[in-house]
Amino acid sequence: MKNGSLVFKSIRSLLTVSVLILVFILPVLLLLMLAFSSAWRFPGPGPVAFSLRAFRYVFFQSPGFFQSILSSTFYSICTVILSLTLCILPARALAWEDFPLKRVVEGLLLSPVLLPVMTFSMGIHILMLKWGLTGTAAGIVVVLTLFNYPYMLRSLISGYQQFPRTMTETASNLGAPWHYTLVRVELPQLIPAIAAGAPVVFLTAFSEYFLVFLIGGGAVPSLSGYLFPFISGSDYPVSSLIVIIFIILPLLLFTLLDSVVYAVYKKRSLS
Amino acid sequence: MKRSVLAAHLMPLLIPFSLFFVYGMVLTLAQSTGWGAVDDYRGGFFSAYEKILKDPLFLQSTIYSLWIALASSVGALFFGSLLALAIWQLPRRFKLLAGIYRLPIILPHITIAFIVLFLFSNRGMVPALFYHWSSGETLGPFSNLLYSRGGGAIILAYIYKEAPFVVLMELAVLQNIPEERIITARQLGAGGFRIYLRVILPQLRAVINTLFVILFLYSLGAFDIPFILGISEPSMLSIQIYNLYFKSDLVNRPLVMARLSLMFLFSLGFILIYLKAAKNLDERVRKI
């Protein structure tokens, strides 16, 4: 009986691992194969020939690639910074204070991620057109912040909920002005919360195609905008290569972020 | 905190929120009645609504969008829950490998659409494999996925993108279920399925309800995936709205805005009704 359940468990584990490999690893391997091929034609099953055409094209010949990757990284980082700036005080109030209609205000402020993007985007497009924000990087940062700040707000609220309020009170009793307390006492304690919210905001901003396309109108380069014509033009090798870049780049950035947070913490606990 | 200080705390978000979301929605609602959209608008207050509600194309794409949203959110919840359970039960040595399920979370929607495209389009890799296996006789069951009227390719892309999100959220809950509870249930003679239904599922209910609202509304109004994988008829509402907004005459603006207003009201009503129903359900279950 015991032996039987052990066998059953091993089979179950094996099945789970096989499904994981088939569904999540195999597509990446196929993408790699495509990226290193000159083309793929039906009925395959292998590529026409192995070649570095996609790499040559993307990294050396195509003018827009580096520009688009830099532009995407830039506006996504700006979106993170703007979200953080806008959310920090509201999060403080929502975590620490009880006031009438608090649940409503909180629900309202978190609603942009819940409601379908389409419902608001056309109204926002008209407003941005009016205020001269379309076709600018600033407009993209604003629209991406509008739709993605709730992730930052949520993690800052939970960050503030775990934060010992006595520390702020001590600082202000000792005569520190509020902005000094905010920057020197509260912000360092909120680093884990920021490190939880920032990657989500960054990633959703970095991945966004529609809003960037709607507000940027093609004037502001983006990696997703760079990829799109290759998908619709069925250039499998180049598309695959860019998808792989979309996998590697966030991983690199998050590793970097992790090590920075770790270094900051180490320095603070040592000093 | 004094009232003024509280207000000052909330302002950084309340100002942009009102400026863009509230004002933007007011503008959308206003333009749907013709006000501020077209100079010499001839229609009545609700004529745009009357017109679109009688438009068979609108009804068709509404039903199509609701179907896609429902199928992909239920599908993602079903497969995500299965996978979460399977990963939760994996021995510790496989946990690191199991982390691979997070991959689609970091991938943008358009890249997921591309993966579905190169695997399942009728000239894609999966039909090609069927072609080889059957020595050219058949392209297999997926050969028409992209052009099916049921929106199979879009649903598949959403499930691939969203199921890992379900796994992520459910695993967080599963890891907090005390093992003693499962052991007790087993000692009392409960089988695996019964344990899942009676011990595990009640813990997951809240997260499943929230996820259903998030996933359903997301896929109802999203653009990227149907833009790549959709067909022209029936088309998703978001694509129809986009085309009307950018590619048609300004006279049609109230029709666009009426569609958006209906979508907005529907989403709002959906959130309220669903969450209320889910809460009641939870309470009823608790009473039993």
TrEMBL record, chain A:
The keyword Lyase does not apply. This is ABC transporter permease subunit. Pfam families: BPD_transp_1 (PF00528). Residues 69-257 form the ABC transmembrane type-1 domain. It is found in: Cell inner membrane; Cell membrane. Its main location: membrane. One of its GO terms (cellular component) is plasma membrane. InterPro entries: MetI-like, MetI-like_sf. GO terms for biological process: transmembrane transport. Belongs to the binding-protein-dependent transport system permease family. Keywords: Cell inner membrane, Cell membrane, Membrane, Transmembrane, Transmembrane helix, Transport. It is a multi-pass membrane protein. The chain crosses the membrane at residues 65-95, 107-127, 133-151, 209-228, 240-265. Gene3D superfamilies: MetI-like. The keyword Transmembrane applies.
TrEMBL record, chain B:
Its main location: membrane. It is found in: Cell membrane. Residues 62-274 form the ABC transmembrane type-1 domain. Keywords: Membrane, Transmembrane, Transmembrane helix, Transport. GO terms for biological process: transmembrane transport. PROSITE patterns: ABC_TM1. It comes from the Bacteria. InterPro entries: MetI-like (IPR000515), MetI-like_sf (IPR035906), Sugar_ABC_transporter (IPR052730). GO terms for cellular component: plasma membrane. It is a multi-pass membrane protein. Pfam families: BPD_transp_1. The chain crosses the membrane at residues 64-88, 100-121, 206-229, 256-277. Belongs to the binding-protein-dependent transport system permease family. This is Sugar ABC transporter permease. It comes from Candidatus Thalassospirochaeta sargassi.
